[in-house]
Write a structure and sequence with these properties.
single chain, four-stranded antiparallel beta sheet, 8 helices, UCP028451, TIGR02453 family protein, CHP02453
Length: 233
């Protein structure tokens, strides 16, 4: 039997019904079922996630006061449950995970593609981390310029144990030296790192502390990215 986990930080508002709802949604991913169970979604998934985001606001400020945790149900940190199926082969209408992004305050409106932190909750696939995902071409160029100009700082990130992930080009992009000591990372199109959680960890009393620790671990990468984009961190 696992030892009980205690927490000195904010209370975790997520309960066992959170994952039960997501498992049921995955098994019945259609509009009729969702409409019948919309009250469950709001009570068991949406509202607890919004309370978690609110509880995370203070701890997140201890990582960076320039990153926002916004608990508004619309236009805040939490992503919509509805999938955009217009160009997708998978036409199931609902996401089977609950997620939130915590963007830099200067990029709040379009922050999903700016530097910040992210939380993804899914049965058997939860994680938190930070970085830069699918940046616009100008931001991507600035990050590559920063890596090329500050190879020692970038290598220090790598040596710290951070596993930096992202889609990558086959070749070093035009305008950068293929023989550069960080050539492999100059191919990256995204720059992010993450920490995984078990279902039990997500439901533990100290989960807000765990998310804070994951974001703090990712913060050197986010700080590097913010500096590359002339943003405070």
């Amino acid at each position: 039997m696992a030892a009980k986990t205690t927490s000195s930080g904010p209370e975790n508002p997520l309960g066992p019904s959170f994952f039960r709802f997501l498992k049921d949604l995955k098994a019945h991913n259609d509009r009729a079922w969702f409409l019948e169970n919309k009250a469950r979604y709001e009570a068991e998934a949406r509202d607890p996630m919004l309370r978690l985001i609110a509880a995370f606001s203070g701890p997140l400020a201890s990582v960076s006061r320039h990153v926002i945790a916004d608990p508004r149900p619309s236009g805040g940190s939490m992503f919509r449950i509805y999938r955009d199926t217009r160009f997708a082969k998978d036409k199931t209408p609902y996401k089977t995970h609950i997620a939130a992004h915590f963007p830099h305050r200067t990029m709040q409106a379009g922050g999903v593609h700016g530097p910040g932190f992210y939380l993804h909750l899914e049965p058997g696939g939860s994680f938190a981390g930070g970085g830069l995902w699918h940046p616009d071409p100008d931001s991507l160029f600035k990050v590559r310029q920063a890596i090329a100009a500050r190879p020692a700082a970038w290598k220090a990130l790598r040596k710290s144990g951070l596993e930096i992930e992202g889609d990558a080009l086959m070749r070093v992009p035009q305008g950068f030296d293929p023989a550069h000591p960080c050539a492999e990372d100059l191919k990256l199109k995204d720059f992010y790192t993450s920490t995984g959680f078990t279902n039990a960890q997500v439901l533990a009393p100290d989960f807000v502390d765990q998310v804070t620790a994951a974001c703090r671990q990712a913060s050197p990468l986010v700080a590097f990215l913010c500096k590359a984009l002339d943003l405070p961190f």
